[in-house]
Amino acid sequence: MDYAVLFVTDLHGSNVCLKKALNGAKMYNANALVIGGDITGKMVVPIVRRQNEHTAEYQGTKYALKSKEELERLCRIIGDSGHYPYITDEEEIQQLRMNKQKTDEIFSKLSMARLNEWLRIIEERLKNTGIELYVTGGNDDFFEVSEILRSCNAIIDPEGRVVSIGGHEMISSGYSNMTPWKCPRDIPDEELEKKLEEMASQVKDAKTAIFNLHTPPYDTPIDLAPELDETLRPKMSAGEGGMKMVHVGSTAVRRIIDKYQPLLGLHGHIHESRGAIKVGRTVCVNPGSEYAEGVLRGVLLQLSKDKVRDYVFFAG
User: Fold this and answer.
1) Where are the domains of the chain?
2) What CATH code is assigned to 3-43+107-315?
3) CB 250 within 8 A of CB 192
4) Whole-prediction pTM
5) pLDDT digit string (tens) for 103-128?
6) How far apart are CA 199 and CA 259, in angstroms?
7) How far from the centroid of its chain's Cα atoms is residue 211's Cα?
8) 3-class DSSP state for residue 4?
9) Which residues lie below 8 Å from residue 230, measured CB to CB, with a gap of 6+?
């Protein structure tokens, strides 16, 4: 009998994308839901409390919120886009502009609060469904994320070990090769390869295994991203009117897949490079990500013991 896996990744704090993933796992009768890395958001959005209203500027729109309902609606919009609303006042705003440590503390606190709320939602929505849920952190995520994930009985955090999923061995890593942003789990490819090799060498049957590795393999159609200049802005391609795309995946991931040739590679990290390819005999997928628009991208896979029988990409 086939085993159905729903794979999504790079939710980046989007409340609506998490709920869509949980609902999708039930709707598609998945046996397992795998949520790849980068589960926390990227930005705090201040909402300034004034005498008779709350004001904010978000995604190019200025808001003057007169009622509790308007405030709640904006907070919901911000949360569904993966960001963190923070109600404050002018005095604190001025203090935060001069105190990066305090700003970082607020971001961390809001991130962890959102994640704990996600655990409550997960336990509520997956209760008695029989769906197994596997979640790792990604290169963007604080290390505290793993501690919180492992506190939830409804979640299996497979980071750094071999686990069984539908009769398949699976190894998982949210670490990435170095990026320009120097994220918490960015490490040199040489170090990443050692981590991956330590796990892969423990797999008993590589040809039926799943390698759930946040970063896609280097020099493939699923690791293309805009090339950035020294200010981290995309470079434009001369004469073509578009952005110049370059391969930014991991050479360590590529070498590990080339060496062990697992059944399936689950990847994310590069939001723009949705697709499926074969690296040797290994089917590698990257569902991409549009979390900021509240759009969930994913892939539903049907696995037999030694074959990826089918896969279907979806967005909604």
Assistant:
1) 3-43+107-315, 44-106
2) 3.60.21.10
3) yes
4) 0.97
5) 999 999 999 999 999 999 999 999 99
6) 13
7) 16
8) strand
9) none
